[in-house]
Amino acid sequence: MRKGFHKIDHIVSDANGPLPETGLINIFVKHTSAGLMLNENADPDVQTDLNALLDRMAPENAPFYKHTMEGSDDMPAHFKTAVLGPSITIPVSNHQLNLGIWQSLYFCEFRNYGGKRKIVVTLYY
């Protein structure tokens, strides 16, 4: 998957078949250089600005990085995952993710070429 924020609401909603009337769903990324976030889905400038902010906080090729053997994007990706986190729990109501009107769930790929990623979706009801 390419670097960036990818909306995955529909993938998570359909992962285990129809959602129950009520419950909780936990989404977990099994990687240290990718994460998850809930954020605005109406204006794509939000994701552009979030990416710019994260890149300023953890720029590639910073001279103080020790962990550099896996490429210039690796240590910044680890930092961004630490900031956003690898998991999110969302309530389920009326057979759907109970998100705010402007919220969506995003898979965040922080590597330039992250490769194949695994996500675990666990439903509690």
What does this protein look like?
With 125 residues, the chain is α+β, with helices and mostly antiparallel strands. The chain has a single domain, classed as Jelly Rolls, CATH 2.60.120. The chain contains 3 helices and 7 strands. Strands 5-4-2-7 form a 4-stranded antiparallel β-sheet. Strands 1-6-3 form a 3-stranded antiparallel β-sheet. Strand 4 and strand 5 form a beta hairpin. The model has no long low-confidence stretch (mean pLDDT 95).
CATH class: Mainly Beta
End-to-end CA span: 31 Å
Tell me the overall shape. Answer: elongated
- The helical percent reads 10-25%
Amount of beta strand: 35-45%
Overall average pLDDT: 95
Report the C-alpha radius of gyration, rounded.
16 Å
Q: Mind telling me the CATH superfamily name?
A: YjbQ-like
Arrangement of strands in the largest sheet: 5-4-2-7
Per DSSP, the total helix count is 3
The domain tally reads: 1
Largest sheet: 4 strands, antiparallel
CATH architecture: Sandwich
Please specify the SSE layout and strand pairing:
Layout: E1 2-7, H1 9-14, E2 22-29, E3 34-40, H2 45-57, H3 74-84, E4 87-93, E5 96-97, E6 103-113, E7 119-124
Antiparallel strand pairs: 1-6, 2-4, 2-7, 3-6, 4-5
